[in-house]
Amino acid sequence: MYAITIPEPGGPEALVWAEVPDPVAGEGEVLIDVVSSAVNRADVLQRQGFYNPPPGASPYPGLECAGHISAVGPGVTGWSVGDEVCALLAGGGYAEKVAVPAGQLLPVPAGVDLTSAAALPEVTATVWSNVFMVAHLRPGETLLVHGGSSGIGTMAIQLAKAVGATVAVTAGGPEKLARCAELGADVLIDYREQDFVEEVRKATDGAGADVILDIVGAKYLDRNVKSLAVNGRLAIIGLQGGVKGELNLSALLNKRAAITATSLRGRPLVEKAAIVAAVREHVWPLIADGVVRPIVDRTLPMADAAEAHRVLESSAHVGKVLLRRPAG
After folding, report:
1. Average pLDDT over residues 41-63
2. What is the phi/psi pair of residue 303, to 5°?
3. Measured CA angle at 289 (ends 288, 294), to 5 deg
């Protein structure tokens, strides 16, 4: 088969479409003929040499895909050759074929085409596990989403609104904020021009956000704590703003607040399977009903993954950037 390889870490040009050995479905796995994959920040970090795949995972980038099951390994039940699926991966989505544990498979939701389904596994699993399973966002509470126009952000807005929460977002510029508003965001904050601490304070009559979903990390740590409500929960899922920050523990204690930090890629298979099962139970019906939908900025040929990475790094997109494998 062909896959996007990374012979040497570097810029987007380091991504090379090359012939590689075919994967094989092992115990508890299925083999997917990939139709499409999606680009994530973790792929960019892997390309740069900063985020190696977990032991045993495919060496090729790509944390999600959609396609058809072409083989079923020993011990797999409930799935058959020919099924249309999307899947959460530890790697290998930028390829013509990928082997994946059956517990990380999802049926393509009703009303979603097979190519667009690749935009769903990573964002739904990340948002549902962090905002709902860990931070326990409840109806009537306020969620602050940093990077509201990103793939994660556009899904977080929709899911939070679906459960009856108020949503505040940060994004860069009026066009991106307008797209967030179209998805249901209530409070729109241009991080280039406004102080999100002050804007959240004003929007909540001084109470603060009950849950914050943060992709920035160290740069926002102190301001995030200031933005939390009493009993607030800060969920850190990214480190785009650095890895080391100073934390005022007194402020955290006074608010009886909590900070969690999680990643998805390296979790044990049983944990990933539990998250995927929860997504299928809670999120898939919302997609089938049209309440939630994948937000796709553009779709590029898989062999042009370098251009897709340039788009992601320029932050010129809203929602997900997809890669579609060549036909045939």
Report:
1. 95
2. -65, -20
3. 60
Please name the amino acid found at residue 173: G
Residue-wise pLDDT tens digits, 241-251: 888 988 899 99
Question: Percent of the chain scored above 70 by pLDDT?
Answer: 100
Q: Which residue has the higher pLDDT, 328 or 151?
A: 151
> Per-residue pLDDT for 327 more than 80?
no
What is this structure's pTM? 0.96
Q: What is the pLDDT of residues 72-98, one digit of tens each?
A: 999 999 999 999 999 999 999 999 999
Three-class SS string for the chain? Answer: CEEEECCCCCCHHHCEEEECCCCCCCCCEEEEEEEEEECCHHHHHHHHCCCCCCCCCCCCCCCEEEEEEEEECCCCCCCCCCCEEEEECCCCCCECEEEEEHHHEEECCCCCCCCHHHHCHHHHHHHHHHHHHHCCCCCCCEEEEECCCEHHHHHHHHHHHHCCCEEEEEECCHHHHHHHHHCCCCEEEECCCCCHHHHHHHHCCCCCEEEEEECCCHHHHHHHHHHEEEEEEEEECCCCCCCCCCCCHHHHHHHCCEEEECCCCCCCHHHHHHHHHHHHHHCHHHHHCCCCCCCEEEEEEHHHHHHHHHHHHHCCCCEEEEEECCCC
Closest CA to 317 of 293, 304, 300, 292: 300
Segment 54-71, tens digit of pLDDT: 999 999 999 999 999 999
CA end-to-end span of the chain: 12
Identify the pLDDT of residue 245.
87
